[in-house]
Amino acid sequence: MTNFPVEKIRADFPILAEKIRNKPLVYLDNAATCQKPQAVIDSIVHLYSHDYANVHRGVHTLSVRSTDKFEGARTKIKDFINAASEKEIIFVRGATEAINLVAQTYGKTNIKPGDEIIITAMEHHSNIVPWQMLCQQTGAILKVAPINLLGELIFDEFEKLISDKTRLVSVVHMSNALGTINPVKKIIAAAHANNIPVLLDGAQSTPHMTVDVQDLDCDFYVFSGHKLYAPSGIGVLYGKQALLEAMPPYQGGGDMIRKVTFAETEYNVLPYKFEAGTPAIAEVVGLGAAIDYLNGIGMDKIAAYEAELLAYATEKALQIKGLRIIGEAEHKGAILSFVLNKIHPHDVGTMLDSLGIAVRAGHHCAMPVMDFFNVPATARASFAMYNTKEEIDVLMNGIESLIEVFG
Ligand code: C6P
Q1: Phi, psi (rounded to 5 degrees) for 235
Q2: What is the structure's pLDDT at 1?
Q3: To pair with 88 at 20 to 30 A between CA atoms, which of 19, 116, 318, 360?
Q4: What is the pTM of this model?
């Protein structure tokens, strides 16, 4: 895409100028976490330098300023995912905490022995373990919809799992291990036809595409700030207001209450009912700044540019003898997971690091996916809007040189 301003964007990310082992950094571990633009760093420095105090608690000027910035960020996030109201935006630590919150509040209230929860075979551990824990607590059963060898959900098999015992479907929007983008609208329509709510794990999708929760009609949507060019330690649970209203709180403490006596406690309104304790104030403000930054570029432009990067990387990778791509779904985000003949992925990761290239090697917190493809781990290059075709060339040349020396 000739008119995507990638060089201008790169200049906004100070860390991209780092040298690693005397080589220019080639950062391709964006699915694990991505780097931060100066605008996000500045927003945090500015808050701590000029506006910082606790939120929702003081009448003094700094508390008001801090609260305005904090709640302003909530509005930006609401608009970013097109939620109907700020009440539907709950701040949590990340996607993991958001899923645990739903499991332990919505799940514990609505799921009984013998009920079923459906996930898919491509889930991150964060969308497996909280449901296993809930099943242990309630006597419910976890059902797993299978995938094919391309790494795609077998939709017919998913549909067959839906029954009058199904109480929740929880599915990843874009797989971190394979890159697969799931047909979430179809999944939601099938579940809703049976009055079953759907949670979407948006940890990987939010940085790469426009997300419209009202258009998707999902019931819950979760994501993490640190994969969205924002700080770590902050994430979002979106939930439809009626569902959130009916759910009990997750944790008790300050800010989630309206009135406390020793006899009883009256809980606060949404979204505060789910936000016990002092929140991650600077991280929320940083997330707001990240969203401003992304809006300045445009999510659709980012998606188009990254699709081009993925197509380029895939074409190059397919030319390398001895390289097997894990995850070849027709609809894929900018993730290239691969294994090399005779070289363990951890060695691939270490050797690429010696060339200044950061990829992730391991099971990517998706051990069942590794089992399915019968590999111990993969090396994973995951791209962001600041990556370039030249960096992909550096990666591919690096892989070729490994194969030459070790393969
Ligand atoms: N995946 C990766 O390298 P947290 O850790 O809460 O921010 O996000 C958890 C999570 C949930 N779902 C998906 C699809 C994810 O990819 C992740 C995080 C990182 O792939 C770290 S394991």
Answers
A1: -155, 180
A2: 61
A3: 116
A4: 0.98
